[in-house]
Write a structure and sequence with these properties.
9-stranded mixed β-sheet, 16 helices, RgpF, 2 domains, Rhamnan synthesis F family protein, globular, 390 residues, 13 strands, Spore Coat Polysaccharide Biosynthesis Protein SpsA, Chain A, alpha/beta
Length: 390
């Protein structure tokens, strides 16, 4: 057996072993947690009423609250949502005081169950103590949101009026594995009012094993509600960057090829000949587009080139992840001028989070209007939906 296969199998077995204790003891640990919640969870009342449309905002900021969190909370309240902030880390008295004007309630809890454990405690508290609850938006602080002041994501969500709506749908051949990504999703009023909604969260498999959180919480949630007849909506499919590729100029397509070589190092050698090619050659474009489908360039929307994710698809969410691919994306974002018009609280953190002294370019001097975000986008039609591409 090749060494790389042996290492892969060892990692797989180690991962499975790490999950055994949670599969065996997880339900009992959840019951113990529920029994102890009154002693282990601290609650603080905020300035807003816990009623109407509510946003459960999960945070983990043990070093102090970020400026972008308050930017997010202001956006949510401006859109008519009462935030319930759930912190998986203790908060200082000063931070609690800073949060209260922006929230309906603040919950401090142990970091049990990671994001879905916090989502669960927040939603069950909302169902038990809220009044006349409408939509329930659920998000966490692994993202910057919104990036730009023209964000219409919540407006789109309301117009769609689906029972469960998410930012990105991971569409799979196997429908049971197709799921909404779990950093931003919302439940409609019809679903929130049902016993199905309460029963799902009360009986959720809670675990502090990250792989099991994905397998037992994030992935099954969408199908759980779809199988019961509830409607599912989303802003983007993971395939949308591939559609946006078609609208690129030759030079822009070359930018994406060179970026892809850095974020997808396993395919760098395959892309290298194209990075040295002539983008003005129509045959070059044809070959690159064919290769893009095979390599699934831009498959994962949140690590796509900023030109695709922000410029063409007008995305409003950026991951805070420190992995190299996201660091490269942030550097490309700043170098390419996509910080133009970005919310100041977000921009400051984007510029400093990687420990690199970034300097903003002046794109308007070189190419006036190139990076401005158009208010009306052309529509590209696919087999089953319309995709707006700048």
């Amino acid at each position: 057996m090749p060494l790389w296969k042996l290492k892969r199998e060892v990692r797989r077995v180690a991962l499975q072993v790490s999950q055994v204790q949670w599969l065996v003891y997880g339900p009992a640990l959840r019951r113990i947690h529920d029994f102890r919640k009154a002693r282990r969870i601290r609650l603080h009342h905020g300035a807003h009423a816990l009623s109407g449309d509510v946003a459960v905002v999960l945070i983990y900021q043990p070093q102090g609250l970020s400026g972008s969190l308050f930017h997010t909370l202001r956006h949510l309240t401006g859109k008519g949502f009462a935030p319930l902030v759930v912190s998986n880390a203790p908060l200082s008295a000063e931070d609690v005081a800073r949060l209260k004007p922006h929230c309906a309630a603040i919950m401090e809890r142990p970091n049990y169950g990671y994001d879905f454990g916090g989502y669960r405690d927040g939603i069950l508290h909302l169902l038990d103590h809220g009044t006349e609850i409408g939509r329930v938006l659920v998000m966490n602080d692994s993202i910057w949101f919104p990036l730009y002041p023209d964000c219409d994501l919540i407006d789109r969500m309301r117009r769609a009026d689906d029972d469960l709506y998410g930012y990105v749908m991971n569409a799979r051949v196997n429908r049971h594995r197709s799921h909404l990504q779990s950093y931003f999703f919302a439940f409609g009023k019809r679903l929130v009012a049902t016993s199905d909604f309460r029963n799902y969260w009360a009986g959720l498999f809670v675990t502090s094993n990250k792989n099991l959180v994905i397998r037992r919480c994030e992935i099954p949630m969408t199908e759980h509600f779809r199988a019961r007849g509830y409607s599912i909506g989303y802003r983007y499919l993971i395939s949308d960057p591939m559609i946006a590729l078609r609208s690129l100029t030759p030079d822009e397509l070359m930018q994406v090829v060179r970026y892809q070589m850095r974020v997808d190092t396993s395919n760098a050698a395959t892309l290298a000949p194209y990075a040295a090619g002539d983008p003005a050659d129509p045959a070059w474009r044809t070959r690159v587009m064919a290769l893009a489908g095979d390599l699934k360039m831009g498959k994962y929307l949140l690590i796509a080139h900023p030109l695709l994710m922000l410029g063409k698809l007008r995305g409003q969410i950026l991951k805070k992840d420190r992995q190299p691919m996201y660091r490269l994306q942030r550097a490309e974002l700043l170098a390419g001028g996509f910080a133009e018009g970005m919310a100041p609280a977000v921009l400051e953190e984007v510029m400093t989070c990687d420990g690199v002294a970034h300097r903003l370019p002046r794109p308007l001097e070189a190419d006036p209007g190139r990076y401005l975000r158009p208010s009306v986008l052309p529509v590209h039609r696919t087999a089953d939906r319309e995709v707006e591409v700048a």
